[in-house]
Protein 1
Amino acid sequence: MVNMKILITGGAGFIGSNLADYLVSKGYSVRVVDDLSFGSVDNLKDLIQEKNFEFIKGDLRDPEIANNSVKGIDIVYHLAANPEVRISSQSPSSLYELNVYLTYNILEAMRKNNVKVLAFASSSTVYGEAKKIPTPEDYGPLEPISVYGGAKLASEALISSYSHTFKLNSVSFRLANVIGKRSNHGVIHDFIEKLKKDKTRLEILGDGTQSKSYIHVSDVIEGMHYLLNKNLEKNIIYDVYNIGSDDQVTVMDIAKIIIEKMGLNPKIYLTGGVDGGRGWIGDVKYMLLSIEKAKSIGWRPKLNSYEAVKRAVDEALNS
Ligand SMILES: O=c1ccn([C@@H]2O[C@H](COP(=O)(O)OP(=O)(O)O[C@H]3O[C@H](CO)[C@H](O)[C@H](O)[C@H]3O)[C@@H](O)[C@H]2O)c(=O)[nH]1
């Protein structure tokens, strides 16, 4: 397996660059394609000299870039996307272009170049406000409440259909809130930046009770790699796994952890948010994924949500 050549779309981003480090350290040849709109070459600085590593700067909305990126590749990890749920009500077109159309371009390039294996970074947001908690992979009907979640679900549908039609082996990974080294967005990043600007106050969007499952990026990349390989051993055409942890933390808990680690004593302001205390339109207030399916195959996260948040806060403060 190690002589396989792997493409990571969005590989200069937060999850992608951590995955690139991991796969290169395991001896794989890795190619990254990224337009650097959300990612950064700085995230690849440990890899750029490696002979098994290659970086292409390019926008995958261009079919020619997609085509050149997949040439000679055995496995594609498709992570390139706009990661912001919160822009759903302002920029649906960006989410369509970057999170749906771009997936189509990758699938077309794979079909034309006979590339047969795809792992996709999908999201917990495909479930919308699930009535079953913890939410298993076979929960339905799927009713996303953000355009971001809708776009991820549309990509999953394209991947399933291409996999069956053109005989690919693919897996969609529905990720809980991923945090850790190199994350440049999301609640931890936002709170730390706000407190660096003004130590005396912290504004929390929403009512602070938003409760979600958080997972450290190191657990995510190990999980995706492990589960994809298990599925390949069984030649499964298309499959879906949740990747998360077994507990949840609230936004208020996260604020308290950050405040304590920064040694501050700010006044906390709750904006109240929108639509019953959400941070923004389409913010799912309560999310916990069932990870029993992945556990039954032999994967489980090393860190729970609390441990992951604490580690991610340390990493952000020391970066
Ligand atoms: O200043 C802030 C920023 C965030 N929040 C709250 O913190 C929670 C988490 O927000 P993030 O922006 O960290 O993350 P999201 O839940 O919106 O989305 C994240 O997790 C999803 C999967 O669960 C997707 O994969 C997505 O790409 C990823 O950013 C939300 O409830 C939000 O309301 C605040 O209260 N104040």
Protein 2
Amino acid sequence: MASPSSTALLKWAQAASRGFAAASAGNPGRKVAVLGAAGGIGQPLSMLMKMNSQVSSLSLYDIAGTPGVAADVSHINTKAQTRGYDKDGLAEALRGCDLVIIPAGVPRKPGMTRDDLFKINAGIVRDLVEAVGKHCPGAVLNIISNPVNSTVPIAAEQLKKMGVYDKRKIMGVTTLDVVRAKTFYAEKNGLDVSAVDVPVVGGHAGVTILPLFSQATPKATMSAEVLDALTKRTQDGGTEVVQAKAGKGSATLSMAYAAALFADACLRGLNGHPVVECTYVESTVTDAPYFASKVKLSTEGVDKVHDLGPLSDYEKDGLKAMMPELLASIEKGVQFVKGA
Ligand SMILES: NC(=O)c1ccc[n+]([C@@H]2O[C@H](COP(=O)([O-])OP(=O)(O)OC[C@H]3O[C@@H](n4cnc5c(N)ncnc54)[C@H](O)[C@@H]3O)[C@@H](O)[C@H]2O)c1
Ligand SMILES: O=C(O)C[C@H](O)C(=O)O
């Protein structure tokens, strides 16, 4: 059964293959770049962005392997003009971009935390965002590279340093947490997943991922044990995939799907059709300066950061429990750029 989101995805594909732009009618085509386009997420995400009728130009950038990926994706008969760029082509890839999606960086292996990726990915994200600040400072940024709790503050600090920071433009992609929470909640309660919604707030690592099942729709009555198990499964969803892949990386296909949904929402917003999605942004909703909650995406990016709504006692405890880790990850990201 298709969810509203996957129905949207199917509609793109159908609209694209019929050669018309349902979602982009009357709007300018958008230039989108995928940085890390030859990777496990990058490849299927590039394909899905090529299928998005709101995209007229698609830049596929990676430090290796882009000619093959770009040649392959470019044969899909949709309107987005697709070009691959290698190391020397970053400026050209970015020039004029409306949306830049960053899945560049290393993934986890079993036994690692997302924070263990900081050593390598912090520098990758900082350098790519510096190029964004130089070549397309007005673009909306979707950051996928882990640890998201730190890479989003890194991106923000880098753009602040360059004098081009706009808090409305930077979003950490937490859509996969929402996708997982919807799937697990629907499965457990025998619901039609296409009718299910579950907000997920906080951050994107372990206990910082907090699904708000008390606000899930349609409502289902769950015992405390089931609620706890669903919450933990959502928090550990990434680890479940890392263990199943046994050393061959982390979620790529479900992540590409989630990233494509979120990028589509951003493009709809830019094109004047506001959408509300959960995402990790600069925030004053809690004590954490960056926090994921429902956000209205509109013509300039983030339009309104919604507060959390009523929380159950279990969720209030979860919110309290995540704060030390979330605040430490944010500070680590801030200091990586500020302290340099
Ligand atoms: N936000 C989320 O929910 C979420 C979900 C899954 C994975 N991730 C993260 O996404 C990242 C990528 O995962 P993956 O499975 O695609 O990894 P991967 O190793 O398959 O692909 C990463 C790609 O990045 C490229 N790359 C490395 N340095 C680069 C640079 N400086 N510029 C451009 N490209 C560069 C590599 O060449 C490679 O093609 C990881 O950090 C992973 O933890 C996040
Ligand atoms: O778990 C990971 O390392 C990748 C990603 O953050 C995920 O949630 O799948």
Protein 3
Amino acid sequence: MTSNVTKLLEFMSKIGQLKRVKRTGWVLRRVQEPESVSDHMYRMAIMSMLLTPEKYPNIDKERCIKLALVHDMAECIVGDIAPADGISKEEKHKREQNAMSELGDLIADEETQKEIHGLWEEYEHQSSEEAKVVKDLDRFEMVLQAHEYEVQENRPGELQDFFDSTKGKFQHPGVQEWVDQLYSNRDKHLQTKSSHNPKKQKLDRTSNTQATDSESS
Ligand SMILES: Nc1nc2c(ncn2[C@H]2C[C@H](O)[C@@H](COP(=O)(O)O)O2)c(=O)[nH]1
Ligand SMILES: [Mn+2]
């Protein structure tokens, strides 16, 4: 009979795997040092601490912190499934639900087990205002990271698809304010890069296609 403490340490080791699961979206785009899933959830948890009552009235930010830290937990078992993987939402949900049950079986305290599983279900089903804000943070954290990779790896405009796939999907005006600032910062960076290096690929933001001056001339 495996002791409860033994099972808890097994749970801790399984979720510890999130420190090594690289985010698929970046791996597919050959980012040099792609972040892990836990990196992504950590910053979302800190972003949740920035949700002031003035801008986010009636939002329980402590619950947002918990939702941020749990929302991708299943990926320690099923991996980080990206849209490019072509796995249906139903299949992804089933795999992640089985993973969350496997993790829950390692937590003897029923209240704790129910809390963690409940948080994951709440995010999956977007069944609270807090879950909807955290979904916004999920998208915002990703595009902020995309911009940072474009700067750090000198790949201006190359991660445009992350911006295209999230454009217009932010629900909360407070997060949209952050998105607007990020777009402004990115535009300034793209202009700086294109003015310093006219031969650099010019991003046609309207059609989101990239053309080099030599090709278009
Ligand atoms: N290339 C793209 N990858 C994307 C896009 N949207 C999400 N993703 C990646 C990012 C993660 O690796 C994974 C899922 O992220 P979750 O936080 O939802 O688990 O999919 C995109 O537009 N392009
Ligand atoms: Mn996520």
